[in-house]
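Re: weekly structure request thread

Next one in the queue (144 aa):
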Amino acid sequence: MERKGFRKLIDRLDWDDVLVVTKLDRLGRNAMDVRATIEQLAAMHVRVHCLALGGVDLTSAAGKMTMAVISAVAEFERDLLVERTQAGLTRAKAEGKKLGRPSSLTTEQQDIVRKRRQKGESLGVLAKEFGVSRSAIQRLERVA
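Done, posted below.
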């Protein structure tokens, strides 16, 4: 509903209109978003037909059941993805791999920056000299 073009389409729909979409992903970013959109359209008495699902009316009883199954499968896939990601991160940590983006400063530069900050040198001066952001310098102080 946040997309201008889709909002304009919704504003043009009337009572008992039929909205035909090629695929469910045209109605939202995730299963919950799609479901909310379909429920909003149903409240407006607009039927929603999805061609990828054989033209089923998603606001009908059969369509609601289809949406429930699709939502359950999508949630299951998302949970599996989260589990696999967490397992991969745990394995990488156990193998001693450093996670995240590489530091923009070498270890030697980090030591120099820390020492100069302890002496009171400003974030801006150090950031400019080493070609990094002020937040990069602040991160070094938090890690120390």
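The chain has a mean pLDDT of 89. DSSP finds six helices and three strands in the chain.
Next request, please.
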